[in-house]
Amino acid sequence: KQFFIAKTIDLTCLSTKEHETARQEVALLRRLSHPNIVEYKDNFFMGDTLVIIMQYCEGGDLATYIKDMFRQKMRIHERQIMNYFVQVLQALEYIHTERILHRDLKTSNLFLMKSMSVVKLGDFGISRVLEGSIEAAVTVVGTPYYMSPEVCENKPYTFKSDVWSLGC
């Protein structure tokens, strides 16, 4: 028995630009194939709703796992933290090689498999593909606590901003 997750986007409330962003997210997800990235399966429309079918990560997100461990007064072993960190670095290396900025890297966008030993990067909703080798993004997007200084200062930024967010 296999489970999937359905991300739904109500298109009736969206501007033309937001419609394009939703289409871009699907196109981006379709391209990605890496063991540490949540797998895209399919998409379809149900009336005015875009439905994106993706791999279900039974362990939930890393932010919730950390909070649960804290509440239970339990620690996550350093070896496990390093294992997660390396896996996220591998996912970042892959998307950056594909010229993709994630732009919202945080623990609530990192998902755990049932084994709790595999972490996967997800939520590419505000990601951006850089076309040229020296192109930089300028739009201020993301979660404030995880934003690099150049994003906060409304300056052009590159893949280094994702690395900064990982350190937060």
Describe this structure in words.
- With 168 residues, the protein is of the alpha+beta class.
- The chain has 2 domains: 4-55, Phosphorylase Kinase, domain 1 (2-Layer Sandwich); 60-167, Transferase(Phosphotransferase) domain 1 (Transferase(Phosphotransferase), domain 1).
- The protein contains 5 helices and 8 strands; from the N terminus they run E-H-E-E-E-H-H-E-E-E-E-H-H.
- It has helices at 16-31, 62-71, 78-97, 149-152, 160-167, and strands at 4-10, 40-46, 49-55, 60-61, 100-101, 110-112, 119-121, 128-129.
- It has a 3-stranded antiparallel sheet with strand order 1-3-2, with helices on one face. A 3-stranded antiparallel sheet has the order 4-6-7.
- Its EC number is 2.7.11.1.
